């Protein structure tokens, strides 16, 4: 299955957003709708091993300009010298405004069209290119102009393959940025490609991660919390498995203003299926590298982050020890049964198992504790080691002292608080469910 394609007609809808501020554009979750034309496919149950993805060679890192910047005025201009434009080199690049879409043609394999934008302040710059002919293989590259050296310095690229749109992003500093659309294979003077750029003044800390080449490496399992910040934004994560693994997937989104999908890709960028938000999915993958792509097919909410969980399936946990500060640790009985006694800072240690009783390596265990003081909820995630063991440090804060217990020397005041364990949003069986939360003692 190919990567999802955005139609030129849908992409051209972004022309109407010219002149909007970056903040308004980033937060306009319903004003301009971009249809990404992707049918959700169930996660595959039969996944074959994939070769390591070898992307095409990336463009040159640095390109010297022959007319810079004293010899050239960076003012808005259009290229109309011939039928298909004269912007075939950086020195003849066409100025385009962010927040608009432009069309162009490439008339020979290996040819290119060049554009540039002016970024006035520190913003995230996103560019997307859709070829008008799905048999073509066009690539997209972003350069920053170093005005001191008159050199274009490559800062991002997208080189996926024929029939696939190209998308990139960069956290830009003020200055000029050049964009090249280059033919890797084929050319078409009848069906134009479409290029659009967007600026975002708010974005999450994982950016830029808008394509597989800049995907964040998450190890063998992860929980990430991110935002979709503009109409084209995508968040890509990468995992590497050393053995065949059954993975649980969960994409949580609490916003009614945003609708998200996660897609799974192998190392060759072959689609392995999709999962809608707020659903649980499971897929068994051979050893290798895989990508997880989150995007908004129609609307998004910048103010509310989503949470993506990917990790081996865990059925139950066994808690071996809970250590604590304030000298109040121990597995004791205050009269309501034996429980772990804890203070402000605790460390929960245990081991995770699957449904057959085998330890789960590289699994995600989420530990949640709710205290009596202000009903504070604390959740911390941990990844199990190669033998299934986990250790979760938590700062849960003070107790209210709802209950009391008269000991040989003093009276202890404490709360009974819940503790729970989850894997990708699924509540796990555990050998404990409550704790004694120590508040203070009086002689």
Which structural class best describes the helix and strand composition?
Answer: mainly beta
Number of helices: 2
Strand content: over 45%
Distance between the termini: 71 Å
Cα radius of gyration in angstroms: 27 Å
Largest sheet: 8 strands, mixed
User: What is the helical fraction, as a range of percent?
Assistant: under 10%
Shape: elongated
Counted beta strands: 31
Spans where pLDDT lies below 50 across 5 or more residues: 1-37, 67-83
Averaged pLDDT, please? 85
Care to describe what's here?
With 443 residues, this protein is mainly β. It contains 2 helices and 31 strands. Strands 21, 22, 24, 25, 27, 28, 29 and 31 form an 8-stranded mixed beta sheet that branches. A 6-stranded mixed beta sheet has the order 1-7-6-9-4-2, with no helix packed on it. β24 (364-370) and β25 form a beta hairpin. The radius of gyration is 27 Å and the shape is elongated.
Provide a brief overview of the structure.
The chain has helices at residues 8-11, 22-27; strands at residues 62-64, 94-95, 101-106, 112-119, 123-130, 137-146, 151-158, 166-172, 175-185, 188-200, 216-217, 222-226, 234-241, 245-252, 261-266, 271-276, 280-285, 288-295, 306-312, 316-324, 331-333, 338-342, 345-353, 364-370, 377-383, 389-395, 403-406, 411-423, 426-427, 429-430, 434-442. The chain has 443 residues and is mainly beta. Residues 1-37 and 67-83 have low confidence and may be disordered.
What key phrases describe this protein's structure?
single chain, 2% helix, 443 residues, mainly beta, disordered N terminus, eight-stranded mixed beta sheet
């Amino acid at each position: 299955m190919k990567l999802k394609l955005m139609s030129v007609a849908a992409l051209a809808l972004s022309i109407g957003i010219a002149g909007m501020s970056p903040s308004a554009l980033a937060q306009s979750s319903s004003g301009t709708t971009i249809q990404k034309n992707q049918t959700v496919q169930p996660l595959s149950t039969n996944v074959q091993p994939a070769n390591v993805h070898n992307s095409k060679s990336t463009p040159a890192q640095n390109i010297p300009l022959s007319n810079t910047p004293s010899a050239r005025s960076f003012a808005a201009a259009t290229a109309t010298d011939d039928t298909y434009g004269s912007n075939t080199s950086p020195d003849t690049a066409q100025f385009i405004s962010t927040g608009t879409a432009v069309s162009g043609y490439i008339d020979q394999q290996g040819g290119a069209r060049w554009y540039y934008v002016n970024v006035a302040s520190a913003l995230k710059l996103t560019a997307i290119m859709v070829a008008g002919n799905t048999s073509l293989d066009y690539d997209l590259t972003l350069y920053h102009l170093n005005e001191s050296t008159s050199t274009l310095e490559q800062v991002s690229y997208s080189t996926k393959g024929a029939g696939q749109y190209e998308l990139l992003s960069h956290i830009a500093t003020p200055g000029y940025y050049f964009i090249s659309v280059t033919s890797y294979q084929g050319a078409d003077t009848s069906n134009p490609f479409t290029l659009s750029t967007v600026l975002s003044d708010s974005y999450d800390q994982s950016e830029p991660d808008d394509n597989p080449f800049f995907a964040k490496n998450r190890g063998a399992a992860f929980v990430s919390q991110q935002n979709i910040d503009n109409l084209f934004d995508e968040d890509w994560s990468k995992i590497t498995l050393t053995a065949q693994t059954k993975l649980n997937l969960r994409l949580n989104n609490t916003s009614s203003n945003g609708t998200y999908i996660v897609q799974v890709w192998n190392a060759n960028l072959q689609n392995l299926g999709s999962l809608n938000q707020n659903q649980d999915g499971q897929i068994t993958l051979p050893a290798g590298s895989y990508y997880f792509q989150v995007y908004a097919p129609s609307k998004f909410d910048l103010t509310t982050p989503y949470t993506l969980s990917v990790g081996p399936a865990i059925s139950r946990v066994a808690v071996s020890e809970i250590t604590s500060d304030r000298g109040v640790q121990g597995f004791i009985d205050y009269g309501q049964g034996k429980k772990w006694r804890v203070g402000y800072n605790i460390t929960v240690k245990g081991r995770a198992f699957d449904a057959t009783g085998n330890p789960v390596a590289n699994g995600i265990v989420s530990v949640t504790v709710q205290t009596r003081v202000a009903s504070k909820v604390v959740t911390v995630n941990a990844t199990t080691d190669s033998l299934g063991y986990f250790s979760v440090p938590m700062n849960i804060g003070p107790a209210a002292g709802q209950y009391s217990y008269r000991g040989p020397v003093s009276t202890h005041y404490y709360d009974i608080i819940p503790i729970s364990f989850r894997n990708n949003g699924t509540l796990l069986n555990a050998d404990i469910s409550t704790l004694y939360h120590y508040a203070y003692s009086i002689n």
